[in-house]
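As a warm-up, study this chain.
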Amino acid sequence: MHFDYPTPLTILTEPTPTPSFPYVNQKVTLTYFASSGWDGDRDRSLNNTIHSSDSDVLTREYYVSDGIQGMAYVVPNFDGKKFTGDLVELDLETAKYSKVRIHGIESDFSDFYSKSPVDADGVDPYVAARSMSGTDQVMVKRLENNDPDLAGFHGGFAALYGKISYGFLVPFFNGAKHHGKIVRINCGTYNNSNTDSWQLGTEFREFNNKGEGETFLQDTDFTAIDVFDLTSVDPELRGFLGGFSKGDYAYFVPFMNGEKYSGKLVRIHIHNFDASTVEVLDLSQKDSRLAGFYGGFSTNIIPGNPMSPPANYAYIVPYKNVIGPIDGANTKFTADGYKDHNIFDSQESYGGDHLTPNEHGMLVRVNLDTFDVAGVDFMDLTQLDEELKGFSGGFQGGSHGYLVPYSKGFGDYSSKVVRFSLLDFSFDTVEVLDLGLLSDELKGFAGGFSYGTYAVFVPYQNGRTDVNFRGRNQFSILTRVDMNNFAVGGIKTMDIAKIFRKNTPDYPDNNLRGFSGGFASGSFMYLVPHFNGMWHGKMVRVDMRDFDTLSDLQMRGESTDVVTGFKGVQEVDLEKFYGGLVGFSGGFVRQRPPPIEEFYRLNQVQFNYATNLDVDTYLSQIAAASGRSEGIDVLPDGGSVREGEAGVRSGEGGEILDGGDASKEEGEAGGGRRRK
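Now compare it with the structure written out below.
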């Protein structure tokens, strides 16, 4: 295959979202090249233009998806009384819910369509709102009605197989035992059409109240779920924290199997969802310390030779394990003899003080192409700094991975964000940003995600009872870091509990704290409700176009009761729709196929160019290898493409991830005990 380089080779960057120049509705042009030998069968249209199979230079455009869009799934965990299986489907297409306006405030992300007659502030649902059923906005599937074991999940993620959209719930602890029952949700099949419709059961109705002219979702009934019990393959495959999808597989990250901290990473085929497709990689075979993880993420990178195919790697985030006096790291034996007991923070669960759980910093990289022990590498981050441990998930941002700081030990919360290069997995590329240098309240986060050029960290608990509302452990400071300015000067915060909301009433809600993960979709960030001193269901939406405005006002000590031009901060209290919708643990947005499905090949290396970073990284490395580096403007870290409904882009196939696999695990203890 002949190779040629355009002159100059230009890789265009994407804008950073600001109120005056929002990161929406912007067409971005990328020039790349192909040679003769183009696979004509894979050639499809770009804006209805067919490119010839022997063209040397091709230009494409993509849209940065904007506005309000998507369907979210909120993962059930614990409702204050029991571990629950109340799966929530939340419609993010809120234009049809914006009929309520009080004093000029349009409350489209609110609970006016809920069943609750009067809320705590004495606000009654309005007559106009009663014309639309609350089930249009919030639908609930009670999984325990199918199987009482289907409760107590921790984290979830979206996956795409062709045009079929799936969601997965990660099995953790259901109140009786750590379990391994994966729930797969069939979120629907996308088909080409000029009408955007949604099939519920056997009836069709308008979904977005308008035709999109691209694809429509032919959805199955919300009851369309499948369950696979991993313990049917191996009884130790249970008790996972978070997961992610990559290619044709769904991955589940090991934490605690009820007997010991686990290192068994599991994958199962997204579509062929049965025992024949289950594969297990025991990370502890590489090193006995490799167990007890909290979420992970995957990406494509180009190793050494830019002409080689991409290697598919996953990064498994360190959380906690145990060291014992008899059998060493992650033993299930104690000096008093092992007893089958729910093992969490309690030392007594291990037979007294002979075994002590502790946070660890063993960051693991797995080659997903081989999925074997030989393809496992790891770094013990505590060798750089003993406080680099106990993370609550991670995510990709540009050419780096980011780890979310949570805990250094029992009741001791962490503020140090770790980032590392995805192109060079070594100590040399590890960087640390201590958020506590800006404020000593910025610690104890529960999950995070990327949005544009920003890394976002979700507030859970920081232990600052001296400053938090009503002396609570949980805090409310949403934290954003500019990935192109990974320093204290790149940190911005928004205390969402002190923001005037675009709701009615509009005054600040001090209970907006204690979240467990989040995700991005369109122009917005969403925070998943967990525990704020009580198990709560207040899901928060933040308009990223207003973030700087509101953050700057708070920084100057000025009121946020202003007109911002966008939708600011709003909340939906899920508990008002159905009782017990509280205490969730992560969430995600349904994936949809990218609008551009065309492929190109370079020396048999195939990419879907609906994504951006992989193309840019690949082309820049090709140019560097050939000495043709002039005129290259490399994509800054965090540049991402919003396609379809989801807000965070993965590195493969144009798939769009939710970023929500990094979700906060709460109450490691059985019986609903909260972790302190």
